[in-house]
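Duplicate of earlier report; DNA mismatch repair protein MSH5 input re-posted below.
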Amino acid sequence: MAIDVHGKGSIGCAYFSPVDDCLFLLHDMPCHDMTQLVDMLIVHAAPTTVLLPLKIPEAALRMCEEYQKVSIEHRTTENRGFILRTLSSTDFGHAASLERLANLSLTDTEQAVVTSHGNVCDDTAGVRDENVNVRLMRLGSFIDLDCVLSIGCAGAVLGELMFVLSDFMAITQDTITSLQVFQSELHPNSLMSGQGSSDAGAKESLSLFGLFQPLVGTPQGRVKLRRMFVRPFVNIDKICERHRSISTLLRGDNAGALRDVSQLLRRITDVCRPLEQLQIGADAPTGGASVDRGVWWTLARFSLHFIKLRDAVLQLQHAQGLDFVQMIIRSVSVEEIKLVGEIIESVVDFEEAKASSRIAVKWNVNQELDDLKRLYHGLNSLLNEASISLSRDLPQWARQHVIGCVFWPQLGFFTSVTLLPNGRAAYEGQGLEDDAWERMFVADGRVFFKTRRMADLDAQLGDPYSGIVDMEVRILHELACRVVGHASTLRRAADACGELDCLVALANAAQKYGWAAPTMTLDNVISVQGGRHPLQELTVPSFVPNDCHLRGGSDILQGRHAGLPRRENSTAGDAETLIITGPNHSGKSVYAKQTALIVYLAHVGSYVPADCATIGITDQILARVSTKESVSRNESAFGIDLRQVAFSLRRATQRSLVVIDEFGKGTAAEDGAGLMAGLVDHFTALGRQIPKVVITTHYHEIFEGSFVQDRPGLSFAHMKVRLDGHAPQMEDQVLFLYELVPGRSTSSFGSTCAALNGFHDLNDEGIHGFVEEQAYRAGARNFVVELDLTEARVAFDLDSDDFGVLVGQAPPDGTVRWINIWSPGTQSSVIEGIGARYKFTPRLQALMTSLGHKPPRDTKPSQNLNLDDVELGYKPMETKTQVAAERRYEPRPQDSGDVEIYQLIKQTMNYTSIDRGDEFLCVGANWLHRRPKVDNIRQSPSLLPPKHWSWLTLCADSVVLSFHEEPPSEHPNDKVWVAEELRSMRSNFVDVLLQLSKKGIERYKRKAISLKSVRPPLPFTGSAKEAAHDISSNLFFYLFEDYSGAAPVVTASRAQIQTLSEQILTSTHRKSKLRTVDVIRPLHSLRRELRQLQHLFESYKSLIQRICRPRSVDAYRQGSLVVDESTANGTSRDVKLSRSARSRFESLQDRLQLLMLNTIQENLDELSALSDTYFNLTAQKDSQATARLSRSATVLAKLSVFFLPITFMTSYFSVEIPDLVEHYTPKTYWICFAIIAGLSFISLFFFSRMLEFLSDVLEGWADSVSRSCFGAREEIDEH
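Output:
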């Protein structure tokens, strides 16, 4: 399929169907909503390849890429997705495309004007000789040449007819998904989910198409059935023809014939693929099939069973005038079908093919072939005679080694000899004259020789086997040519079988499920009595049917076609727009979907699940039921809903059916109610152009506030509910009757429905352990608690739809709702819905949904059951929340710069945030949790425990929100560590959760420090609203009061300070080996961590001050720093704390100052004192070392002075002076030595003081001279 989009808002399309061998061109259409129109075209054509021009708008290219990803993810056996390719824009050129189209030959000239040079031509022989203008005129006789875009898309192929979407009901992918027309299911074996698997790793799950698919017997029937459900008709003649066919097949006197037809259809094979193989010259079986189940077997079997099927169809009573009977009996030549079967049976030997693993030709087909076969089959006796003759000529010793003579196809005749272990033959022709044995090859432990006798046999007989094969190939090729000549007849027969198979499947489904024939009319009405949902009724023990009466605006179709069914009274009730209210789980959505499905089935040509129905022709079904989110779309859930509704408003005509379910739930309740009221007002104001509309809603405000006025054609209904307020169990207080009755519902029973949807009573002792297990579970995503003065209920792992309903309804008076979410970055749609409800700023929502740590996946099996196969019943499946978690797992893309800045801020330990609005007070900060102690894992040297970021929000309607990001673990590969760290991080929140129950309070009474008194003491004398305010404020406080993770830091710091003190005090010993780095590094690290902890608790203290004495909202917006006393005293319009919670926050502020900040400051002061002490001791040690060094230097200097005269004297005596040599004797030397040594010692002892004095005097003179010189130089510089 090729698609081209013009920048000014038009779209063209063309696609080629290899099944029909036709090219279809779309009339160029205006493109107001490109997304939905392209979606409609892809659904209509179901392409395998989509071609786009290079100059296509970027938005269209991105959209097609998204569709490609979705098609691959949801591929099935029949729909394997499509390949997206871009071509040069010249390939889509209009002039070149016209030329290529005009030059092609026609295969069907029924709608084309064909001429030749003689202006008359009975065939297309002269078409190629026509000039260009004549060919273009002929082309324009059946193709609109003004469709520039579609002709460009057609490119190089010509089609039989142009298609228009008006021939079919317009269906979008959103409608198909919402109504569950198709729904694929992944294979349970993960190895079968690859792209290369034969069934694409998926099968049809519980869906509308899935009800009929098992009832189809032929491959072509399955293809046609899918096409039938993708393209419902709006042609009333074709629809009524299908209904008449089904009615005839279901007649009582046709029961036996219908059973025979169904059985024969199971034996009909698909001949389209075999014919394609014959046309390309490949008649061998493919796909691992055996030879006797190949092309020829398929064609022969088809011919045989088609004739039997034709005979069975002739047995149908009152069916002679039906189209499918005429197609089988008259449109297909039975003589040709018989001829094909006979010529195949007369030529192909299927028994021989099975034995020889190749396609064989029967005997008596060709005399030359028979002769070759006789020769080949007689080779065994001939080779035996040759072996006996050879054995006579061989020496006696060689006969045991010569095995005999053999024949190898394509190689010839050989003599085989035994192979010796050394690789040589046991005999090589020794002793034979005039017979040279030529060694050819070795195989199977034998050596094969070419001898004179074998060469003579080659010359005489040749290669009979190859001759047989070549002859059979030629014969089969001639057979293939004859069969291909009947290809069109075989294809028509296959199409007729597929059409009949679909009609039989529709008839069997109607009989199996108890459906009734609808009455089709041109009146714009829908009148259904006893309507049922075709899928829902299969999953419940009993189904309550409901009626539906709708009418739309009038159009020119009414009154056309005399003789067609037409109602005398065209008002099937007064409802043009039907608004349905009622509680959750009451059946509103099921009713809206069943109405659309009944209309859908009627236009498919099927019977419908109803007692009786009158259906007017409907051109399109526009559904806004389910929101399909994807990380590839840069749209929020509410944005997707808006786009779907906007498309419905633009595309709806008076003959459309519009189904809208719970529109507006993704935004604030007031905004959603306004949008719903505007939507109803738009439809009711259309007058004669109004479509048939079914709307379900929870927004009772639009009725109570008179936003929706009563108008003609506007009708209200609700699902009937029976209430029993005295029932002891909450699930027994509301009984859903699933019956549609006129009027509006005044309540949605949100709390009761929540209990039925998974809320558990916290006071139930049996549920206490389950709650704790779920709260600490690694895969937990969220939980919601609703509590009052005495009771509390909790639910885990709600999905976005549940939150949409929950957030849209305020808690009842006296009830507090606590919503806790782990890893909010992976649940962005939930955060957006909550933010829209309480009017969070865009910045705050963006921060809350920023990228977080990937939560661990929970692999715990679910116990929920869901119907998978109508025939097989129930099987375990994943819960809805698990599927939603995987679908919404990946966070949406964000700007890398913003993420980097935000992550940097979060890494700052003392960073805090406080935001205020008219309906909320939100604080964000880092909280510490204890580091686990796990064996075999070395503890971190840092005393500072790990941190996690949390948002705590107190809302004006007594709702408390807590969002927590899970940071990366220090040891992510150790499951024990991760579990313990998760438990430590959630401990405070789980403590608060468990103490909301009576058993939890009893459990924590022995833990005074951990006791959380969320509820006020009983009896409470205030109102229910005051009680809810007090409980929510206290809950907000106890969630904030989580500083126990810092206690180990303070304790460990005291121990580390004591250790450092002992090390420093013992460092004065001369034998101490303490290094400075061993003291400075721990001192610096400990001081830094204590300083960070101090900053963190100071930020807590500042945060408490801002909570207890906040600025007003207006002051925040204006940037004022003035404290609003009215807000602190509880008179402002923003969120306020209760008095008990404010006093708790003030006490917490004092505790933080006394227990933490003062202790941390004392430790910091002690660390400073230790640092000073260490440096003083180090200086003292350095002074002592310097003194010792000075004394050593003095001793060395004196020794040098003492030995200096002795050194001179020794040098003098060592000089050999001729005149004095005889006067120097050893005695003289030692006498001189003694005298000089004595004088040196006396001088060193008596004159050392004098030398010091002289050195000081000389140093003083030098200083005075230098100062005088510098002074004189300064005077010169001044002058």
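The domain at 528-556+572-589+606-754 is CATH 3.40.50.300 (Rossmann fold).

Merging into the original ticket.
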